[in-house]
Amino acid sequence: MRIIFAGTPAFAAAALEALIAAGHEIAIVLAQPDRPAGRGMKLVPGAVKTLALSHHLPLRQPVSLRDPDIHEELRAVAADVMVVAAYGLILPKAILGMPHQGCINIHASLLPRWRGAAPIQRAILAGDSETGITIMQMDAGLDTGDILLQRAAAVEPTDTAGILHDRLARLGADCIVEALDRLAKGTLAPQPQGEAAATYAAKVTKEEAVMRWEREAQVLARAVRAYNPLPGAAAQIRDIPIKIWQASAIPEVSGVPGEVKAADASGIVVACGRGGLRLEVLQRAGGKRLAAAEFLSGFPIAPGDRFQGRNA
Questions:
Q1: Rg of the chain over CA atoms, in angstroms?
Q2: Distance from first CA to last CA of the chain, Å, rounded?
Q3: Which neighbouring-strand residues pair with 90?
Q4: CATH classification of 2-201 is 1.10.10.10, yes or no?
Q5: Which of these, 126, 138, 147, lies nearest to 194 by C-alpha position?
Q6: What is the pLDDT of residues 3-48, one digit of tens each?
């Protein structure tokens, strides 16, 4: 098939690479403009741009898709289908109807659950045991189009958002190749989404990732996993910012929320609203991620000390 591909980060790059390997013709690639990143805030290209350039594919990075010039360029491509994955820009109605087979989205959840920007993090935060990939026919709504294909994937108890992201990226790549093969054969049967089961996956913010020690330990353990790698679960002790990268819940702990109950090589146990949270991998601002034993050797913490977060 002749394809317009729209995507920006690594999740989308996995799909683009699979489409190239499957022999599809990538007529043009759309990616968001380069963004500043790192301590130097230098402009850094997304994974899709890097991959497209390595394959010498035509690439455009428009700030928006409302410019008539980009409409004309995409129309001239005469694509069979447009594949969208984690692109980050809204497709105007004029573009949605442009390819012969319309626009198809790769979404990292089992729609209609977790429509929106952060389905992977929201699935972990909610304690879902299962998520997956949905290949969806795009319409004017937010992830509301007909379902073309779905594949489920387990959410493992130790999954961080980063680990689950990578697993779903691989699954999404497999699914879009299968979906386009079936689309060409006319064997896809679109199914409307059930609105009653719809949930929304709002974008994760840094403020949200500040630990609320009044919450149940199991909830906070999921939060640590959901906010890894971005933005990182955050707290303070003695007014020093700390990121928490790995933690586990301990049901039998009790105490004032935020109070350190134990601190040794196995971790720093902090009382929560219910149970305790053992902090196992931590990082001071400007420092490295360290296992608890190494962290404590350079930053002593003792029972009775108090972590701050924010109130629930």
A1: 22
A2: 51
A3: none
A4: no
A5: 147
A6: 999 999 999 999 999 999 999 999 999 999 998 877 777 889 999 9
What H or E segment, with its residue span, contains residue 297?
helix 292-298
The CATH classification of domain 217-308, taken from the options 3.40.50.620, 3.10.25.10, 3.40.50.300, 2.30.30.110: 3.10.25.10
Q: In what order do the strands lie in the sheet with 81-85?
A: 59-60, 25-30, 2-7, 81-85, 103-107, 130-137, 147-154
| 282, two tokens | 């931590």
Contact partners, residue 144, CB within 8 Å, separation at least 6: 112, 115, 193
Q: In the numeric block, which tokens belong to residue 59?
A: 């690439």
Q: Are 197 and 257 in contact (CB under 8 A)?
A: no
In the structure encoding, which two tokens stand for residue 166, read together? 């990578």
CA pair distance 120, 108, nearest whole angstrom: 7
Cβ(217)–Cβ(277) below 8 Å? yes
**Predicted confidence (pLDDT) per residue in 82-114, tens digit:** 999 999 999 999 999 999 999 999 999 999 999
Length in residues, the chain: 312
Asked if 136 and 115 touch (Cβ cutoff 8 Å), the reply is no
- pTM above the 0.90 mark? yes
**2-201 shares its CATH topology with 217-308:** no
The full set of domain ranges for the chain reads 2-201, 217-308
